[in-house]
Design goal:
With 159 residues, this protein is mostly helical. The protein has one domain. It has helices at residues 3-35, 70-89, 96-119, 121-124, 131-145, 152-158; strands at 62-63, 66-67. The chain has a two-stranded antiparallel ribbon with strand order 1-2. α1 packs antiparallel against α2 (70-89), α1 runs antiparallel to α5 (131-145) and α3 runs antiparallel to α5. 23% of the residues are buried. The model has no long low-confidence stretch (mean pLDDT 85).
C-alpha cells in the first residue's frame, strides 16, 4: 500500500470509530426513551406541545394512540451498525462488503429523508441538522476513503 492509501484508511478508521461511539451512545439512549415512553420525545398533538427532544427523532413515542413500533427497530439496527463500525475500524479492507453496503444504504436513507423532510418542512426541518447529515456524512466518508473494491477471491488470496 502506498502512503496515500494508508492515510485514506486511517481517516476511514477514525470516521468508523467516531460513528461507532456516537451510535452506541445515541441509539441505546433513544431506545430507552422509547421503552420508558418519556414525554421528552413526545410527538406534538393538537393542543399540546412536542416533547423537548422530539426534534431528534422522526416520530414520537405514541403513533395514532398506540406505541410506535418502527423507531425502536431502527434504533436497534443502528446499535448493531455501531458495533460493526468499531469492528470494521480495525481493518476496513477486510470489511469492504460491509462498508459498501453501509455507504449505499446510508446514501439512499439520506436521499429519501431529504425528500420527505422537504415535503414536510414545517414538521421535519430539524432532519437537515440530525438524520440527513448523520447518514450522508458516513456515506460520503466511506466513498472518499474506502479501499478500492476487491473481489472476494482477491481478499481470500491476500490472507
Amino acid at each position: 500500500m502506498v502512503n496515500g492509501e494508508i492515510r485514506k484508511l486511517a481517516r476511514l478508521s477514525t470516521l468508523l470509530r467516531a460513528y461507532g461511539v456516537v451510535s452506541l451512545l445515541l441509539f441505546p439512549t433513544l431506545l430507552v426513551g422509547f421503552v420508558l415512553q418519556t414525554p421528552l420525545l413526545a410527538d406534538p398533538t393538537p393542543g399540546a406541545a412536542a416533547g423537548r427532544l422530539n426534534w431528534v427523532i422522526w416520530n414520537g413515542v405514541i403513533c395514532g394512540g398506540e406505541p410506535c413500533h418502527v423507531p425502536p427497530m431502527l434504533f436497534t439496527i443502528y446499535i448493531v451498525w455501531g458495533v460493526f463500525f468499531l469492528i470494521a475500524a480495525s481493518n476496513p479492507v477486510a470489511y469492504t462488503s460491509f462498508l459498501t453496503f453501509t455507504m449505499w444504504a446510508n446514501l439512499a436513507h439520506a436521499v429519501i429523508m431529504a425528500v420527505q423532510a422537504t415535503m414536510m418542512l414545517e414538521r421535519y426541518w430539524s432532519k437537515w441538522f440530525t438524520d440527513i447529515p448523520f447518514t450522508g456524512v458516513i456515506a460520503l466518508g466511506i466513498y472518499l476513503w474506502r479501499s478500492p473494491v476487491r473481489k472476494d477471491a482477491d481478499i481470500a488470496q491476500a490472507r
